[in-house]
Amino acid sequence: MTTKAAIVAAVILIGCSLALPGFVFAEKPAQSRPQVIYDSYHDTSLPVREYSTEAPRGRAPREVEHPRPGRILSGAAVPVEDLAEQTIVAPPVSAVIGLNFEGIPNSANGMALEGIPPDNNLAVGATQVVETINTAWQVFDKATGKPLFSPQQISALFTGVPGLCGQGITFFWSDPIVLYDQIANRWIISQIAGSSNFGTGNECIAVSESSDATGRYHRYVFNFGNNVLNDYDKLSVWPDGYYANYNLFGAKGFMGDDACAYDRAAMLTGAKAKAVCFITANEFSFLPANADGATPPPQGEPNFFVDLATSTSLHLYRFHVDFANPTKSKFTGPITIPVKAYTMACGGRTCIPQPGTAQQLDSLGDRLMFRLAYRNFTDHESLVVSHSVMTSKAASGERWYEIRDPNGTPKVFQQGTFTSGGNSLWMGSIDMDKAGDIALGFSESNASTLHPSIAFTGRVPTDPPNTMESLATIFTGKGSATNASRWGDYSSMVIDPSDDCTFWYVNQYIPKTGPKNAITFHTRVASMKFPTCQ
């Protein structure tokens, strides 16, 4: 599948994560000189609460599944003994679930924009919670979980913007991300908009004018060029920029991993902005570090980008951006971080079982899962991140890491593979609070008794190193997916900036097994807190 037409066909699906089946990286050096992309349009919106919440009407042709990257990591698809697999019997998880409420259902995408997978994601601010799925977003009251308005199309944020970002139903809208910039008390909402002839891939970014997610936004369009798709975008907040990563695809396939820094200072004021980017041909699906907590990174510290390297290592790069003189920007690495050997879940592909159907689900075991969370404890700095691996029970589990000293000599401080008997765990997301407690959310399923459900675990600093406490269920699914193998593409665990203790998590479930090709996903939002964090 190498022709332009074939690639176009592969990205019809909303919520895409594009690529070609099974590619191998050539050993090419990282780009030494940055590419500078200026916004092709920017303005400031009306208060978005005034825009329409009506979903698109009519039914458009859709594809329920498409190829995606099948990255070949050195040795990672070959079964090995996982020496990080947790074997001790852990105590019940000590975090207590607080709110637990319904998020955005697939129906909010509208009949013309049904999506698989849902790309569910959330962020938390001073008084609000914002969730995004494929093409829709919604704002909830943080104290009660009640919606402040009906789900709105993300494209409504870009009402009146020229080009693909303002067209509403374009060829596809995909991979939304919502963040809360707790340094400035602003919201960032982004989404890809692509054209039907694969001629243009745009990043549409909206930065709120205040801490009210229903108010005005500074809106930006960045064009990544002809015959280029900026796929599977992942964004983060850092003091000197909004950092992002893309898997770039063109008419001939995978082009490289694109690490970008957006001019945060300009975008907070609605001024003309630029992005500084580095393409690395031999890396894939980096995650940029998101600065959590009240203590920011040390002045001038670069952002950190991490991805899977081999079956026994991670790669870390450091991104120093200079918006005044972009030629002085640097993207340096890789720094190899040894980890205990693992086998990618499902060999990086599909093997997650469900009851009542032969349809198995995609593990996305070929990549680290959103987010890479950074925290400065003043006496040390930590990154936490997770991905899905195979376990001794022939099921998938969640491998997690705490990496310390990322700007010095990065090393794994602790790591573990969390399992749940013979159940499969995948689609994880991890974060850490100000007390050093860690929460890890994920999907859970088996072949006979457990439909895909939502669960979490966690640990406190006094727990034995490299271990998590026992699993707790957030919501039990009542149905299995019969329409396609895709699930997720990501979930989201974030920390509440108000108390720096409360975790919030979103993931998907299916309320009832429907007829083949029915798309019936719902999402669930929950908060949780460890008693050790005050």
Q: Keywords for this structure?
A:
single chain, 534 residues, mainly beta, eight-stranded mixed sheet, 2 helices, 42% strand, globular, disordered N terminus
Structural summary, described in words:
The chain is mainly beta. The protein is 2% helix and 42% strand. The termini are far apart. The N terminus is likely disordered.
A few lines on this structure:
The protein has 534 residues and is mainly beta. The chain contains 2 helices and 32 strands.
Radius of gyration: 21 Å
- What about the largest sheet? 8 strands, mixed
Mean pLDDT: 89
Helicity, in percent?
under 10%
Strand content: 35-45%
- For the secondary structure, the number of strands is 32
- Which class do the helix and strand fractions yield? mainly beta
Major β-sheet strand ordering: 19-18-17-16-22-23-24-25
Shape assignment: globular
Number of helices: 2
Oligomer: single chain
Parts with pLDDT < 50 across at least 5 consecutive residues = 1-29, 58-68
Distance between the termini: 54 Å
